[in-house]
Write a structure and sequence with these properties.
Blueprint (H helix, E strand, L loop, with lengths): L17 H14 L2 H9 L8 E7 L4 E6 L3 E7 L4 E8 L7 H12 L2 H4 L3 E4 L6 E8 L5 H23 L10 H8 L5
Antiparallel strand pairs: 1-2, 2-3, 3-4, 4-6, 5-6
C-alpha cells in the first residue's frame, strides 16, 4: 500500500452500509490475534541506520519504535482494522501557539499531499501529535517501518515550524503559514 494514497476499504461502499464495513473490519482484527500482531510488529527493525529498537508496552497492547531523535507509538485500532502510528512534537512558544495551531489545521486539509497523515493536540501544553495509520490487511513489517520513518521525517519538518521565531511585525501572517506548509506539498 502506498503511504500517499487513501486506504482502500474491504468492500466497495456501494455494496455495504457503514455498519457492515465496520463489522467486516472487526472480523479482520479478531482474526489477527495479539500474538499474530506481535509477530508482525516484532518483524520491524532494529535497522542499522534508522530504527534503534522496537518494544512492546506491557499490559496496554501498544508498541514503541525507537529512533535516534524520537519514538513512534503503534496502537491497533480494532474497530477499523488499522494500526495507528503517532509521534509527539514539542509545544511551541506561547507567542507561536496560534500560528502553529492554524498550520496544523491547514496541514489536515492537505490530504492529497500527505495521505492519511494528520495532526492533533497531544497535551494541554500545546504539544502536537502527528498521526498516520495503516490497514492491518496485507500489512508487512516493511510497511510499518516506512510509515514510522515517514512520521519521523515529517515530525522533524514540524519541529522546524514550531521552533521558528515569531514574526515581529504584524504577527504570523497567512503568507508565513503558506511558506511553512510548502514543505508538505507533493
Amino acid at each position: 500500500m502506498s503511504l500517499n494514497t487513501r486506504p482502500r476499504s474491504l468492500a466497495p461502499y456501494s455494496n455495504f452500509n457503514g455498519e457492515q464495513i465496520r463489522r467486516s473490519n472487526a472480523k479482520l482484527v479478531q482474526s489477527m490475534d495479539s500474538s499474530t500482531l506481535s509477530a508482525l510488529i516484532s518483524g520491524v527493525g532494529p535497522t542499522e541506520d534508522e530504527i534503534l529498537a522496537v518494544a512492546e508496552v506491557p499490559d496496554v497492547g501498544r508498541w514503541v519504535i525507537q529512533f535516534a531523535k524520537r519514538d513512534v507509538e503503534i496502537a491497533p485500532l480494532e474497530s477499523s482494522g488499522r494500526l495507528i502510528l503517532s509521534t509527539v512534537i514539542v509545544a511551541p512558544q506561547a507567542s507561536r501557539q496560534p500560528a502553529v495551531n492554524r498550520a496544523a489545521l491547514a496541514f489536515n486539509s492537505l490530504w492529497d499531499d500527505v495521505g492519511t497523515m494528520r495532526m492533533g493536540l497531544a497535551a494541554p501544553d500545546g504539544s502536537l501529535l502527528l498521526i498516520d495509520d495503516l490497514s492491518i490487511e496485507g500489512c508487512v513489517p516493511a510497511d510499518i517501518e516506512r510509515c514510522a520513518l515517514r512520521l519521523t521525517q515529517k515530525a522533524s519538518d514540524w519541529e522546524t515550524i514550531v521552533n521558528a521565531p515569531a514574526e515581529t511585525s504584524g504577527g504570523d501572517t497567512a503568507a508565513r503559514l503558506e511558506t511553512d506548509l510548502m514543505m508538505f506539498r507533493a
